[in-house]
Amino acid sequence: MNEKLTSALRVLLADNVALKHKSQGYHWNVEGDDFPQFHDFFGHIYENFEGATDTFAEWLRMLKMYAPYRITDFFDISTVTEPILVGDVEPMLKDLYDSVELHIDNLIVAGDLANDAKEYGLANFFAERQTECQKMCWQMRVSMETEQY
Fold first, then answer.
1. What is the Rg, in whole angstroms, of the alpha carbon atoms belonging to the chain?
2. pLDDT tens per residue, range 105-138
């Protein structure tokens, strides 16, 4: 099996789990005038990542690899940073935006590896996740913009 592809898939799984927990933590801890809006927004994001977790793990199994499952494994593998941010939505949005952008970059690299390995179904899954994450980033970006057009 393609070592680079399975390694990238393991990182993507760990990052997906980390992004789920990060966005859920922001969901729990956001405060301010726009609390209901951002509480729901972060909730949709963590549910999206939660929904993808099983598919990442199942792809590892289809490629005859074991999926990591211990929290310590995810900590060791993940590239997602974990700053302590509570209350103010702006730093939460910026941090989550940056983390999801990095995840998108990793999805693109993994998609190329999957195509090279002729794992087209996996490449399609990565492309679908890329689109979902790009939509999240667009929504976060316009929530952070203050300029009026």
1. 16
2. 999 999 999 999 999 999 999 999 999 999 999 9
Q: Is 9 exposed, middle or buried (0-12, 13-18, 19+ CB in 10 A)?
A: buried
89-120 burial: b if 16+ Cβ within 10 Å, else e: beebbebbbebbbbbbebbeebbebbbebebe
Alpha-carbon separation of residue 109 from 11, 12, 17, 149 (angstroms): 12, 11, 19, 34
Band (pLDDT 50/70/90 cuts) for residue 87 is: confident
The mean of the pLDDT values for the chain is: 92
Q: Tell me the residue length of the chain.
A: 149
Measuring CA to CA, which residue among 1, 6, 121 is closest to residue 57?
Answer: 6
The pLDDT, as a whole number, for residue 47 is: 96
Contact residues for 69 (Cβ-Cβ < 8 A; gap 6+): 57
CATH superfamily, domain at 3-144: Ferritin, core subunit, four-helix bundle (1.20.1260.10)
